[in-house]
Amino acid sequence: MNPTLEVQGLGFSYGEIRLFEEVSFALHPGETRAILGPSGSGKTTLLHLLAGLLALQEGEVLWKGERIRGYSEGALARRRLSYAGLVFQHHYLQAELTALENVLLPGYLAGKVDPAWGHELLARVGLEGRAHLLPQALSGGERQRVAVARALYNRPQLLLADEPTGSLDRRNALRVLELMLGLAAQLDTAVILATHDEQLVAGMEELRLGGP
């Protein structure tokens, strides 16, 4: 069986600045890997390459054995919508939409709107009573939990999380991380988590950028 994500010899440079080279690994359903490194080491760039949001320079990225380099921009966007979920440091919720409507947004884009599933996801992240509220009525931790539910709405095979707890205090960070990884495990979703916080991901398999 092909891995969910296969990375072969990735390298990337910004002008004369070499961020990383020869990055290779494979990730199977339900597996989690932490990408560690200081600010500027290339963590976000690597995630954008894995998501097909940035053009490859060196190496290949494969989703279930298919090279994403071969997709047109439009075809890759459609494939990403169903295959990969994205969580960022800032929640990027739509201010005019309720928590439930934000969770359902990927469904509208994919033509698969299921309010019952949206409510279930909010319940799983502990927000079953907050579905009707706009983002400004939610705390920072609650907004990020809505963002996690939104990223998993289309039951993606791959979840890419870029410093998803970076703007939260330690208590909320641990809560969001626990919920995100627990829900992804239930869906058998492979997870790549980029962070500078080594304590947060202690015990996870690591890929380290920008130093030993």
TrEMBL record:
In short, the EC number is 3.6.3.-
> Which gene is the coding source of this polypeptide chain?
lolD
Alphabetically sorted, this entry's keywords are: ATP-binding, Hydrolase, Lipoprotein, Nucleotide-binding
The record, for PANTHER family, names: IMPORT ATP-BINDING PROTEIN (PTHR24220), LIPOPROTEIN-RELEASING SYSTEM ATP-BINDING PROTEIN LOLD (PTHR24220:SF689)
Query: Which InterPro entries does the entry mention?
Result: AAA+_ATPase, ABC_transporter-like_ATP-bd, ABC_transporter-like_CS, ABC_transpr_LolD-like, P-loop_NTPase
A single cellular component GO annotation: plasma membrane
Q: Where is the ABC transporter domain?
A: 5-212
Which family is annotated? Belongs to the ABC transporter superfamily.
| Name of the protein in question | Lipoprotein-releasing system ATP-binding protein LolD
* Record GO terms (molecular function): ATP binding; ATP hydrolysis activity; transmembrane transporter activity
Q: Which leading EC class covers this enzyme?
A: hydrolase
